[in-house]
Amino acid sequence: MADFDLLVKGGTLPDGSHADIGIRGDRIIAIGALSGAVAGEVIDATGDLVAPPFVDPHFHLDATLSYGTPRINASGTLLEGISLWGELRDTATVDEMVARALTYCDWAVSMGLLAIRSHVDTTSDHLNTVTAMLEVQKIVRPYLDLQLVAFPQDGLYRTPTGRTNLLRALDMGVDVVGGIPHFERTMEEGRASVRDLCEIAAERGLPVDLHCDETDDPLSRHIETLAYETQRLGLQGRVAGSHLTSMHSMDNYYVSKLLPLIAEAEVAAIPNPLINITLQGRHDTYPKRRGLTRVKEMQAMGITVGWGQDCVRDPWYSLGTGDMLDVAFMGLHVAQMTAPEQMSRCFDMVTVENARIIGLEGYGLHEGAVASLVVLDAGDPIEAVRLRPDRLAVVSKGRLVSQKARNDARLALEGRPQSVRRRH
Ligand code: FE2
């Protein structure tokens, strides 16, 4: 009888150590030097990076792959995107949304992205978005962990049924409480929405993840209220603030007070560099603000920060591939995280740190963990961020779910090697 159902041999782990990984059923049951072991199936990862799967803590699966429908976002702004999506949300059918989302999940699996937290718009009374995403969650469950956030895109109080529909979505089984305080009518209503949403989460025992201060307005300070309410209600460790772009523009003295409050409340931060860098600063002439929140400064305070993707081919963003290494690559540049330990941290931010933010259970490469991993055509995490290389193999819950042949370029140059891989 075989020792393992699946054996991943000879890989380099993100910490630089070398180990074989033995899998039975959906679990890693042995890790280390496993020479001589017999396995039903063997993946040879010699010389390649073997990492736990990528995790995206911020996405919009209901809107993905809809770019250009009903038309392209001409101004490129967040607000035109919201308005375009408002039209699509009421014309798209459940079947269409399920089909688009499943196609995106196929892309994700092929890139080793096996856990996604997706916000789901709860604005429209028909809640077709919620029906569709719950259906997708059920279909992909065997191979992809999909967490859903009830997201009142047009405001909790700004539409007559905003609050009721959010509660209906939670009753239908949506996992996380969302919000958008900077989009409410006034600062006061924004603040009240944060309090209300945190109380709803406390009452129902749910996590919180708000689109928070996604604006260039330096006076948008809902993150302060989010930290306060987290502390007051004892929600430490299960609250995240997504975007936090206003922090880019805030007064430095105020930030010196704010960061310790966020750290004390154990609120995590989820910047979305691809989107923040394209949507923010649109009202500026020059110099133009980047709109990315203060990543290195938060990390120095011990705040957990993860890179999110936010959008792929939707009313807000025309590009995107489902590759979390694209996200880490952009984040590294915009946050100027160029020291070796910072580059390596960018890889952690799209793997282990994101897994911690969304509370993923059994994550990692250790005995007893869920047997999910990705084999990359790179030697280490920094090289992975630099190359954004092919995912040679993806294992989800013990099953080999995606494979790609190594694809070196063939050179036709006299006196030069016949192929080139760009690995160093
Ligand atoms: Fe978002």
TrEMBL record:
The keyword ATP-binding does not apply. InterPro entries: Amidohydro_3, Metal-dep_hydrolase_composite, Metal_Hydrolase, Metallo-hydrolase_Enzymes. Pfam families: Amidohydro_3. Residues 41-400 form the Amidohydrolase domain. One of its GO terms (biological process) is cytosine catabolic process. One of its GO terms (molecular function) is isoguanine deaminase activity. Keywords: Hydrolase, Metal-binding. The keyword Hydrolase applies. This is Cytosine deaminase. It comes from Puniceibacterium sediminis.
